[in-house]
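Long-time lurker, first post. I've been practising inverse folding by hand and with some scripts of my own, and I keep getting stuck on stretches where the structure tokens seem ambiguous. Below is the full token string for one chain I'm working on. Before anyone asks, I'm not after the true native sequence, just a reasonable design that respects the backbone. If someone could post their per-position residues I'd love to compare against what I wrote down in my notebook.
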């Protein structure tokens, strides 16, 4: 029984590690998708489309936020945060790509 517990713990740890490794890949992918929307439609229209759920910008427990350079939110799944300054929370971003006018970042969907 003791051996089974050790094996179970080892398997759980390996699956957890695989999930964490995939989260960086997922973060990069959803940011890439959001950047494509911004580049195709422009900053303002692209942000509006992302606010309306356009594009593949959600994975597991992550989503995308678009910030102006000063930290004000342009696009966020919780529309109530659009227009607010979240520059104090920027350290929690999982992965960001910086464009000329905005930063497109993968964030925790819980944020």
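-- Answer (accepted) --
I ran through it position by position. Result:
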């Amino acid at each position: 029984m003791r051996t089974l517990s050790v094996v179970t713990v080892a398997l759980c740890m390996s699956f957890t590690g695989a999930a964490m490794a995939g989260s960086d890949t997922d973060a990069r992918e959803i940011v890439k998708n959001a950047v494509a929307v911004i580049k195709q439609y422009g900053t303002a229209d692209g942000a509006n489309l992302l606010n309306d759920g356009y594009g593949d910008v959600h994975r597991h427990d992550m989503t995308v936020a678009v910030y102006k350079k000063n930290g004000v939110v342009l696009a966020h799944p919780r529309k109530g945060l659009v227009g607010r300054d979240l520059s104090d929370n920027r350290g929690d971003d999982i992965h960001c790509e910086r464009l000329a006018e905005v930063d497109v970042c993968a964030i925790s969907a819980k944020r």
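A couple of notes from the structure itself: Helices lie at 2-41, 43-51. The mean pLDDT is 80. Happy to go over any region you disagree with.
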